[in-house]
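Hello Y.,

Per our agreement to keep a running log of every chain we model this quarter, I'm adding this entry. I've kept the format consistent with earlier entries: sequence first, then predicted structure.
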Amino acid sequence: MATDDFDYRSEGASTASRWHSVTSAIGASVVMHALAIACVAAILVRSDAPPPVAGSRGLPAILVGAPRIEPLPEDAKPTPAVTARAVPRVQPLTAPPPTAGRDTGVPWAGIPIDVAPPPGMFGPSMVSEGLALIEIRNITIFGEAIERLIQRKYAEEPPVPIRLNSPEVVGYPLEALDAGIEGRVLVWFAVDDEGKVADAEILDGPPILSEWLLERLDRLIERPALDKTGLPTRAWIALEVHFSRAIAEEARERAASERSRDVSAVKP
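Predicted structure for the entry above:
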């Protein structure tokens, strides 16, 4: 065989090797174009998304499977559903009207809490009625000692005299009323610029009534005397206080009847 004859087997192997190289190049080109297209698509999609918030962090998604529900035993009873109940509205407490005592039969229900208690509530029993006051300005009946005291300390008489309260604040003592004691008590006393009693002296009267009145003179003072400028000043006053047993007895019986009627109205 001549040396320059064509070798078909070596030529076929060389051709197959060349085609294998071309196929690999084409496949690599296709892969690279696909990656390029995917990158462009990702850029376009990301450009449409809202910008990220500063300082925010993405939360990793955790995929969990559906929870497994255990079947109830056959003898188990379903739990009854709890229904919401409306809470009753509490009405605010209101003060009773002024006429509550008369309307409901409870005499103390309509009494305001700021009413001052009667003078005898925390002291000896008394009747508020049965007294009368008469002012005396004739100093000659007071005696020499009182006259000198007036000339020395209360010579100037103020233009506005002392103002007194009602004699009911003194009251008639039940002890004297039960003993049948009544009469007139003559008292002289002074009032300073603060409205306090000073230099008081009983001039005449039954001892039990005189002592009772002397201990309660400060209740009679509503306001001291006033001078020319309208300022409080000291002054003196003398009173005849008449204790009438008949009027006091009538007032006591009337009060007892009212209390009995109120108690009967409260009873069912």
